[in-house]
Design a protein that fits this description.
The protein has about 210 residues and is mainly alpha-helical. It has helices spanning about 1-20, 25, 40-50, 55-60, 65-80, 85-90, 105-120, 130-140, 150, 175-185, 200-205; strands spanning about 155-160, 165, 170-175. The protein has two domains: about 1-120, no CATH class; about 130-205, Nonspecific Lipid-transfer Protein, Chain A (2-Layer Sandwich). The chain is about 55% helix and about 5% strand. The radius of gyration is 17 Å and the shape is globular.
């Protein structure tokens, strides 16, 4: 588990460095995550490093147990007064091991998937730790928590073209591991990097 948090801290730090030179327009760019901008997605990631199980349940109750309302309230709390403040808030939680309740691998997943939610629309390339991406893919393939990955990939044979990883049976979907991860977690644009007869099925099941 300590190794996982080390990976999380490394990915948070790398993303913060990539964000340091953004313009105001870039911070306002729509990310791949729901209807959130880059700034809002980063603030959401900050919230993960601030919350604990106790504060999560307290704030979730204040939001009437409405997850969207809760998530948006957390974004509001963690946005800075300006873009520099938003980045400073995010840097402050780089090494945090606090998190809401839930499977611990999901926080490594958030650090990678949300980082791509931000980087891809901005055209920023990043090489992720291969073991970290593998850990996250292995977690999500068997989980329907929040984003429904297990159901999304049911009946598909996923195959990585840049590693020896594969999973499932059915219509094939092949491509880079990172793009498979993004498509598995509902990012339709990542399907553009994939090939095989199962891609259209995965697109239809994506957010």
């Amino acid at each position: 588990m300590n190794d996982m948090w080390t990976l999380v801290a490394a990915e948070r730090g790398a993303l913060a460095d990539d964000l340091a030179g953004l313009t105001a327009d870039q911070w306002a760019t729509k990310s791949l995550c729901q209807n959130w901008t880059v700034a809002q997605t980063v603030a959401h990631m900050t919230g993960t490093g601030v919350l604990t199980p106790v504060t999560f349940f307290g704030n979730f109750a204040k939001a009437g147990f409405n997850f969207d309302k809760f998530a948006n309230a957390q974004i509001g709390k963690n946005l800075g007064a300006d873009d520099a403040g938003t980045l400073a808030n995010f840097r402050a939680i780089q090494s945090s091991t606090s998190s809401p309740p839930g499977p611990k691998p999901s926080w490594l997943g958030e650090a990678i998937v949300h980082a791509e939610d931000v980087r891809r629309p901005l055209g920023i390339k990043h090489t992720y730790d291969a073991d970290a991406v593998h850990q996250v893919v292995e977690f999500y393939k068997g989980s329907n928590a929040l984003i429904g990955t297990k159901s999304r990939i049911a009946g598909l044979a996923l195959r990585s073209t840049d590693s020896d990883w594969s999973h499932g049976e059915g219509e094939e979907v092949s491509g880079p591991m990172l793009s498979l991860l993004m498509a598995m977690t509902g990012r339709k644009v990542a399907c553009n990097d994939l090939s095989g007869p199962g891609v259209s099925i995965l697109q239809q099941r994506s957010l």
